[in-house]
Amino acid sequence: MPSRRRGASTMKDSKRSSSVFRSLFSYTRPHLWTFLLVFCCTLLAIAADLAQPYLVKIAIDDNIRIGKNDYHSLLMICIVYLAMSIGSFVFTYLQNNLLQFAGQSIIARIRKDLFTHISKLSMSFFDRMPSGSLITNVSSDTETLNQFFSQVLLSVVRDGLTLISIIVIMFQLDVRLTLYCLILLPIIALIAISFRSYMRKTYQNSRTALSRLIAFAAENLAGMSLIQSFHQEKEQQNRFTDRNQVYFRANLREIRTNVFFNRSFDMLSSLSVAFVAWLGGIAVFDKAIEFGVLYAFITYIRQFFQPISTITQQWNTLQSTIVSVNRIWNLFSVQPEVEDAEEPRNVELSRMRGKVDFNRIQFGYAEGSTVLHDLDLHIEPGEMIGIVGTTGAGKSSLISMLCRFYDVRKGSVTIDGIDIRELPQQRLHRLVGLVQQEPYLYSGSIVDNVRMFDETISREQVIRACKFVGADALIGRMKDGYDTQLSERGSGLSAGEKQLISFARIIVFQPKILILDEATANLDSYTEQLIQRALHVVSENRTTLVIAHRLSTVMQADRIIVMSGGRIVEQGTHSQLLEQQGYYEQLYRHSRGLVELGAG
Ligand SMILES: Nc1ncnc2c1ncn2[C@@H]1O[C@H](COP(=O)(O)OP(=O)(O)OP(=O)(O)O)[C@@H](O)[C@H]1O
């Protein structure tokens, strides 16, 4: 029964939308007084606006036409008219500013909460969610919400009230003429409704074309080095031009539709003025109404179309607000898969020794697939473990278990006998330090990058750490030394330089357990020596796990773990493993170019 199903899903959608909007309004609660003030300002601004034609009507009918030559009253009316204009200006100014203040404060709060929420989510979430889409959530979706407060809400209140007030005043001026004018209402509604859906389509088309264009540009900028090295500039320019053209055309169509809609309303407005002038003119000839009434009527009928046109146009913004709010609340409703225990164990970090045990763990990223099989590994405090294995063997997955980026499916990971699920994650991450293959540097100074923006760590501590790992000389050569500002992702620094800075981070944060993921891959031999020395320094008195493709990196390790297909297949020192003449020995010989892996 498709129709019944559609009905049910529509009900579900509308229930969801209403609950989403309820959550949105919970953000508005602290600003209720501001909104009340905005409402009062709006009322006063509308009153001041609408009083003006009425004042002219009084001037015409009660002063000018009768020929009383009552200069005093006329002057008073002019002064009140002027006061109304100033009042309208002041109240509209206040209304706009207050509303913008409340709207921007709400959006800033939502943006902050959203960022905080996202940063607490588990790695499995980031595996599923492309970062481009998250950027859209944090930036443009919240901006659309802002439009809701600054445009839609304002329009509904201001234009809705204006419309009602105009109708009331028109009825008060002349019932018959008002009723004639209201005949136009169905025509207006028909035009508004038919334009509304067309405008929505053109709006959506142009938004889609724009986001495709942005996504394409972002992807290309990120991969520019690859494009240039493959001489693909021309091809990419052509592809960009195609997308640019699509957006250009979609945008023009949207603008054309808007202009056509606005002009149609203007025409309708002129038509109704002609209509009122004709009917009202006859009524004035017949002395059924006064001339001033006709003047006020014509002015009001002109003002009548403006709010309808604005409200109709806000419909699009309201639609995109609903989409954005839904997207934002979808994100808010995602719960982290890895969570702190209800009553986490509070351990003294300085007392931890760094004994690590993987107790028969099993893990897989997706249901039905297993990446780590019943893996058992016990590491003594201060021991240096090298982890080797071919691509996809499960090395990084094993490390992710210790960092608790994911939770094990079976078994447990313990540090000094404590299950890491019982530790607060914040403590765990102070206990376990990770240096990735491509260390991530943020835009900011070197000092801030080393202390990860933690102001409790002093500049002196940072400098000491950099000296300790041998990064001091390199930083000294930079333009502003430790205050050198790094750009996004630390571009401008070599891989080795980034690596040294990330080692300094480790020294500053003093984790008891250190993980190095391919830290010395892709380095020239001089930098590698530098890094090896730094590695030696930082791993002292720390339990260290080093993942390496190049066996030379881990030959000095206390123990080498050889992984294959998510299992530990061999372990021992370099010489013990060579003696065994097993898988490690094959890897070793392969790495020295003696045999092909798997041959024989
Ligand atoms: N985020 C993920 N989502 C789904 N599957 C993943 C994810 N990360 C890794 N895998 C899969 O898990 C298996 C083990 O991958 P893992 O990255 O742990 O291997 P690795 O030994 O570290 O490999 P490499 O040396 O290439 O980094 C692979 O089959 C891989 O495709």
From TrEMBL:
InterPro entries, sorted: AAA+_ATPase, ABC1_TM_dom, ABC1_TM_sf, ABC_transporter-like_ATP-bd, ABC_transporter-like_CS, P-loop_NTPase, Type_1_exporter
UniProt keyword annotation of Transcription present: no
Principal cellular location given in the protein's record: membrane
Domain ABC transporter: from-to ranges: 356-590
GO MF annotations in UniProt: ABC-type oligopeptide transporter activity; ATP binding; ATP hydrolysis activity
Domain ABC transmembrane type-1 intervals: 36-320
Assigned keywords, A-Z: ATP-binding, Membrane, Nucleotide-binding, Transmembrane, Transmembrane helix
Membrane topology, as annotated: Multi-pass membrane protein
Keyword Disulfide bond: no
Transmembrane segments: 71-94, 152-171, 177-198, 267-285
GO CC terms: plasma membrane
Compartment annotation: Cell membrane
The family this protein is said to belong to: Belongs to the ABC transporter superfamily.
PANTHER family according to UniProt: ATP-BINDING CASSETTE SUB-FAMILY B MEMBER 10, MITOCHONDRIAL (PTHR43394:SF1), ATP-DEPENDENT PERMEASE MDL1, MITOCHONDRIAL (PTHR43394)
Protein name, UniProt field: ABC transporter ATP-binding protein
Source organism: Cohnella zeiphila
Taxonomic classification: Bacteria, Bacillati, Bacillota, Bacilli, Bacillales
